[in-house]
Amino acid sequence: MELTLRRDSRDPLYQQVADQVQAAIRAGTLPPGYRLPPVRELAARYGLTRLTAHSAYAELQARGLVESHVGRGTFVANGAVAADAPPTGDRVPQWTGQGILADLLRMSEYPDLLSLAQAFPDPATYPLRDLRQCLQRAAADPAALDYGPMQGDAGLREELARLLLDRGMTVTPEQVLVTAGAQQGIDIALRALGEPGDVILVEEPTYPGVLEAASRRGLRLAGVPGDEQGIRVDALEMACRSYRPRLLYLVPTYGNPTGISLSAERREAVLRLAAAHRMLVLEDDVYGFLGYEFPVPPALKSLDRDERVVYLMSFSKLLVPALRLGAVVAPLELLPALGAAKHTADLVSSSLLQQALAEYLRRGHMAAHRRQATATYRPRRDAMLAALERYLQRCRWTRPAGGLSLWVRLPDGIVEAEFIADAMERGVGVAPGHAFFPQPQRQAHLRLSFGLHGPARIEDGIARLGRVLDEHLRRRSDVLARAGRITQPLV
Ligand SMILES: Cc1ncc(COP(=O)(O)O)c(C=O)c1O
Q1: Which of 371, 383, 430, 378 is nearest to 403 (CA)?
Q2: What pTM does this model have?
Q3: Which residues line ligand 1 (CB under 6 A)?
């Protein structure tokens, strides 16, 4: 059995081992009954920790490909060469390497998992009755079953312009382009506004959806560090000088993954830099309507005197993800290019759903829904912060005033992939920190989301993470103590 492991890969080592062994089993190179090397031998041969080697075998076992027999070893399972079995509720979910977004969506297939990995809204907040009535009303109009206008339903664009007043923005319906959620907004903005080879700046850490979309578009990504007030202006200025970037992507309000908001002074500074360096700013405001403390920062776009900001929003976090509706608001001269990119992607967004959403907004349901949603999430955020104080004191974390996630820095020396694999074994899903950076990272981080569970489940999840961390810290101090003993002078 020969493996080729890449330490600079985004895929954790245990997963690389598991994937390569799986490929060899599927190809028939490792037949049923074949005995895999013992954990200790595998670890020594490839310079892995035993925990990594063990995690790889545990993953293969969870995939139904190997069987472990105490005292005898690990063997390729009978029937392992058969087609992939569909995932079932009692399996441990895997990071497949198909991209973090795909992996996060796939976590929903594991009902037993306590997922703190997904920044999803709680289905219990969905306004089913109101939405059903609005859908019925829309479906009664045959025009709602047409393709509809390319820029989006006129009634919806009017309602959007009205809704955005809440974000401090005064825009006309002509500036609004309806999209299939914010992810499509990002994708079409990158297609319309960037050429392959252009540099796009992102705050570090940032939303992985922009990293995936930018690399697929052939854009070069450069990270700019942030702190507790958002992206650092000194570092941004340096990056503008070094890279002459086309675009800066930011989630300035309740950012993903940190939950941090860009301070008022920095908002002005970012816009000054954008004007000075002829750079556009792509403002992703998907969490801007989910603020738990006052004042809620107005959108960066509301300060955009030089027309440098292209603004994105979505109803996925605010209302229901399945609408797949959002909007881009852009300076008028950019709209033809953005519209063409949208048209190429999917012609138009569903007229039926747009008209239903327009009706929902027209009937004035949104204000009450927002109150109810924020009243649901605020105590969950508080429960997560309290549980972190209680169970993860050795870590550092952010304190978001809105949004659905916060960001945890694990103590030095903890190996992120191993921690996450063990958390999964304990039934807790967390989003791996490395996925939020354009470059590989040494420091271990987690993104924890609090939208999906009530306070008691959140506390249970964090308590389990606390036990995993204690175990890892204990193991690490054992290793260090042993190393210390060996390096003691022998006199
Ligand atoms: C910052 C950010 N932007 C965009 C998206 C994509 O959202 P949508 O469902 O609207 O495509 C997400 C989803 O998690 C997000 O966190």
Answers
A1: 378
A2: 0.81
A3: 119, 181-183, 207, 209, 251, 256, 284, 286, 314, 316, 321, 326
